[in-house]
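Lecture notes, continued. The same structure-token format from the folding unit now serves as the input rather than the output. Read the line below as a description of shape only.
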């Protein structure tokens, strides 16, 4: 192998990793089933494009960065466009993870990138319109700048910007910025950089949040703090301490064994080998930052009231970098670094690829229907049909009532006030209207006035929110309800039946492949 080829091979390999990520990610982008969260993120992006403000003008329970970024990049036009923006940030996250791992050499960077990019768990979640792709890209930016800083204040300032932006994309990664500062405090050379990273990080957060706090501080506190505190209290109350702990342990084991086995194996094996060596630890400080960030983010999501697997995607950029840094340094000490590096990269890339194939084949959009064909519009086909029906039944300026915000995105229709959080918009809080949400009383009033031109409800909406079901084209309360529930939901159901008529139903729609019902306003 010539010297020129040897120099070009690592960057070409990095480019191949990113391109392969985009190729696999594009399959998830078009074939992964719809998720109800995607609609409210994109609807929020549309509203900020119209000049409305999160918290102040509509309910939004995450920091404000995502809707502004997705609107600026055109992601609010459709679900497909939104997922395209997510894929862009996912690819950027992969590139920055490679850059961070490169601190210990090309093999370290390529190992980190391959472990991160070729995890089906990462591919699937970063392809959705959620905060994961954007937050992961920001976390990877902060980590890459920090590990290459070597005490340089400019790089530490960039690290603070990356971690601050991550916290402005999602609440649960706001801890990344304090982790950076604590890491800087642990080293004399890095400590001087606090004079830059602290004001830069705090200043960016203040500039981003101050306009909303000045406009309605109570609403900001409610949506960013009280809302999540209420969910935490409810989640803990619904499960015993032993049950909650067991559920979390099983979730974590499933993540390690099922969704990212190669990354977990490389991470644990690399750390064990690195810790057992007696040679000088050149990357000790950088390894410490990646390890601290991984632990803080993993544990923070582990103790959540609902520790869903997908939350741990936010801990995987730093975990992949940690594995890459550890193996990169180990290989630098090896007597046969080329052979060992080739074996490591093969394992880091090939093992995950073996699990990507079946995962892609099993995507809902790749499954054949009863007639033996695949819908050319993939998982969006049923959603598009509902949106087409809504457009036929409503005008461009008409109002739509639905907890399925993705219908409003696809149909380009305006939702009734208080519905911007999809099913999470529904609350029993008597102050729901104050917080730009809905409760049974406000929904009943909306149906009585018949202000929406159409109503779209899923089977789950009827069952879990209205305690009702469809029977003979009419909405009826579930049998066996108590007097209090009948008094609450009876008027709501009566108003819906009195002012709206069922005009269409569509099967296998949305995240849970439910039947969605479209109701049109009755003629006066």
């Amino acid at each position: 192998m010539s010297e020129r080829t040897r120099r070009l091979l690592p960057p070409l390999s990095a480019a191949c990793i990113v391109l392969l990520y985009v190729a696999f990610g594009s399959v998830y982008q078009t074939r992964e089933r719809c998720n109800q969260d995607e609609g409210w993120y994109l609807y929020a992006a549309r509203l900020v494009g119209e000049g409305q403000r999160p918290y102040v003008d509509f309910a939004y329970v995450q920091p404000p960065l995502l809707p502004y970024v997705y609107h600026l990049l055109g992601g609010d036009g459709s679900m497909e466009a939104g997922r395209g923006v997510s894929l862009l940030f996912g690819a950027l996250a992969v590139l920055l993870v490679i850059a961070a791992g490169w601190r210990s050499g090309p093999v370290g960077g390529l190992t980190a990138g391959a472990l991160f990019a070729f995890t089906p768990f990462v591919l699937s979640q970063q392809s959705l319109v959620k905060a994961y792709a954007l937050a992961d890209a920001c976390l990877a930016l902060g980590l890459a700048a920090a590990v290459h800083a070597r005490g340089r204040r400019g790089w530490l300032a960039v690290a603070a910007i990356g971690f601050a932006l991550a916290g402005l994309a999602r609440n649960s990664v706001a801890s990344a910025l304090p982790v950076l500062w604590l890491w800087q405090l642990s080293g004399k050379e890095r400590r001087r950089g606090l004079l830059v990273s602290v004001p830069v990080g705090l200043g960016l957060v203040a500039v981003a949040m101050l306009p909303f706090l000045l406009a309605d501080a109570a609403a900001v506190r409610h949506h960013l703090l009280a809302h999540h505190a209420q969910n935490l209290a409810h989640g803990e109350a619904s499960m015993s301490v032993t049950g909650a702990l067991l559920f979390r342990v099983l979730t974590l084991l499933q993540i390690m064994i099922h969704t990212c086995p190669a990354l977990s194996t490389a991470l644990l094996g690399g750390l064990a080998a690195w810790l057992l060596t007696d040679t000088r630890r050149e990357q000790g400080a950088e390894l410490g930052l990646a390890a601290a960030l991984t632990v803080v983010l993993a544990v923070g999501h582990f103790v959540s009231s609902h520790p869903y697997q997908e939350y741990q995607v936010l801990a995987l950029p730093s975990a992949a970098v940690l594995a890459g840094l550890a193996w990169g340094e180990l290989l630098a000490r090896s007597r046969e670094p080329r052979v060992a590096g080739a074996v490591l990269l093969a394992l880091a890339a090939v093992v995950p690829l073996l699990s990507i194939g079946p995962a892609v084949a099993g995507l809902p959009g790749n499954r054949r229907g009863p007639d033996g064909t695949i819908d050319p519009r993939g998982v969006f086909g049923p959603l598009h049909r509902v949106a087409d029906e809504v457009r036929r039944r409503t005008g461009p300026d008409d109002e739509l009532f639905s907890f399925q915000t993705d219908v409003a995105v696809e149909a380009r229709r305006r939702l009734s006030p208080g519905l911007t959080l999809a099913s999470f918009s529904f609350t029993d809080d008597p102050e729901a209207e104050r917080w730009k949400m809905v409760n049974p009383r406000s929904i009943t009033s909306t149906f009585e006035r018949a202000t929406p031109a159409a109503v779209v409800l899923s089977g789950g909406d009827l069952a879990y929110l209205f305690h009702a079901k469809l029977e003979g084209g009419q909405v009826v309360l579930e049998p066996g309800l108590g007097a209090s529930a009948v008094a609450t939901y009876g008027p709501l159901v009566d108003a819906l039946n009195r002012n709206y008529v069922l005009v269409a139903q569509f099967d296998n729609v949305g995240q849970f492949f439910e039947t969605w019902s479209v109701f049109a306003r009755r003629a006066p």
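Point for the exam: Residues 194-237 form the longest helix (44 residues).
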